[in-house]
Write a structure and sequence with these properties.
By secondary structure, this protein is an alpha/beta fold. It contains ten helices and twelve strands. Helix 4 runs antiparallel to helix 5.
Length: about 290
């Protein structure tokens, strides 16, 4: 099992990285074999933290540790055998086909003494099947729609076959059906293979539905973390996103609804003065 932690992590960009960090003195222990979702408003530091955890951004101070070793001092190939990454805006190499791109996920496992094998063929074929992209194998990636392209990138990181998977907005460009397919796949990897997943998500309900552990951020700091029911409360949503809402839990399924209450709805309509942690009796029959 691969363990990822951050200690007093400070992250930023350019000349102001040290004096005006985006992520401040952050400590984090990623639960092993679980799905962790990082949530929060735009500009809160979600993707910056993700970049720091994935070695795309070097800390100005503090450390990221992978199995107790400083991530930024480890050889690239060693990291790639333990951790697969899907950044928010991956760059498509010119002229590359879907099959070629997904096959690149196997490169960290090759070397002078190990070349391409039938096992690699099987892993690539499985990744294509799991993401529903097998019929695209001969197409150039640049020709694909945004949703197709996203699933192909996910196939590539799946082909890497690591114990740790970092995904920055993995459902970007996907319609609701494909969002569910991708997040179902993430759950399958965690439950079936024990893969540790860290993903950045905008959709709070989806994060609560699919993640075991939530990390809620605001202003570059962790405001709350824990299980979905611990984190997704009306108070925390107000603190993190600055909105008044009703939080409804469906007791039978564990599903969550976060209902924002805008300026045109009286606050007095919110159950219990702020929110209710379970469905109101008048709504239970319609759940």
């Amino acid at each position: 099992m691969t363990v990822l932690t951050a200690e007093r992590l400070n992250l930023g960009y350019g000349k102001t990285a040290a004096t005006a960090p985006i992520v401040h003195d952050l400590d984090l222990v990623v639960p092993e074999g679980k799905v962790t979702a990082i949530v929060g408003p735009n500009g809160c530091g979600k993707s910056t933290l993700h970049r720091g955890l994935s070695r795309l951004l070097r800390p100005t101070s503090g450390r990221v540790l992978l199995d107790g070793q400083d991530l930024h001092r480890m050889p690239t190939k060693q990291v790639a055998r333990s951790m697969a990454l899907l950044p928010q805006h991956p760059v498509v190499p010119e002229g590359i086909t879907v099959g070629e791109l997904v096959s690149r996920g196997r490169h960290p496992h090759h070397g002078l003494l190990r070349q391409w094998t039938r096992e690699d063929d099987g892993v690539v074929a499985e990744a294509l099947e799991l993401t529903g992209t097998g019929h695209l194998v001969s197409r150039e990636v640049a020709e694909l729609s945004g949703g197709q392209r996203q699933r192909v990138w996910i196939a590539m990181v799946l082909a890497q076959r690591t114990d740790l998977l970092l995904l920055d907005e993995p459902t970007s460009f996907l319609d609701i059906a494909h969002q569910v397919e991708v997040l179902d796949l993430v759950r399958d990897l965690s439950v079936g293979r024990g893969t540790t997943v860290v993903m950045v998500l905008h959709d709070l309900a989806m994060a609560a539905r699919y993640a075991d552990h939530l990390v809620a951020m605001r202003g570059g700091r962790v405001v709350a973390q824990g299980g979905p029911r611990e984190v997704v409360t009306a108070e925390t949503v107000c603190d993190v996103f600055g909105i008044t809402c009703r939080v409804l839990w469906q007791e039978a399924t564990g599903d969550l609804s976060v209902i924002p209450l805008g300026r045109h709805r009286p606050v007095g309509h919110v159950l219990g003065g702020a929110a209710t942690p379970r469905l109101a009796p008048e709504l239970e029959a319609h759940a």
